[in-house]
Amino acid sequence: MTTDRHQDPGFVRRMFEGIAGRYDLANHVLSFGIDGLWRRRAAAIVGGAGARRVLDVATGSGDLALAIVRACPHAYVMGVDFCEPMLEVARAKGVPNLALADALSLPFADGSFEAVTVAFGLRNMASWEAGLKEMRRVLAPGGLLLVMDFSLPAFGPLRMAYRLYLHRVLPRLAGALTGKPEAYAYLGESIEGFPRGEAMLEMVARCGFRDSSLSPLAMGVAAITTARRDG
Questions:
Q1: Residue pLDDT, tens place only, 186-228
Q2: Distance (Å, whole) CA 226 – CA 204
Q3: Which of 27, 52, 165, 199 is the most buried (most CB within 10 A)?
Q4: What is the pTM of this model?
Q5: 96 phi and psi, to 5 degrees?
């Protein structure tokens, strides 16, 4: 995969630096509050897997890491992100273990974790497959991968309405909330190009995972993909 503006690390880092202070507010407003429900569902999956060491990649403001801490009180949960202002927001919330790190070069030994999660972050990486392979590297054999990201509804009329919201309404509303409408214009563009459905499952399999499955959220607006590291 070639790197273009939409997955350029410098562009993505600057974008998140610019919206870090109002990122959570924008998420909650633009998703009508259901993003919290999605994260709790993802955390419950991790909890059900019984993982004792969990890595949350591209942790951002730490909402998924906190949800996992609550769902898995006996687990060690580490969050990493390459944007320091986002980590500052996560620290202020009380996320216990955080590190500044690039998802394509994680500072952990092979097989260090029993579960690796990434919520709304894989789509922003310079290479989706390189990111998945690096997550596989730090997973123990049989460990759980969980990817949660935006998608597009399969139902035609709903997809049309969602695209109108995504490209016309959302950037203007987000611009009013954050002062950075260009960041949310990027959001719509990146969602359009991100693999979904069978394409997502095929990419996960190519990167060394098995037993993959996909669960749509909110009629396909987002999806949770889970898989196990092979070997």
A1: 888 899 999 999 999 999 999 999 999 999 999 999 999 999 9
A2: 9
A3: 27
A4: 0.93
A5: -75, -35
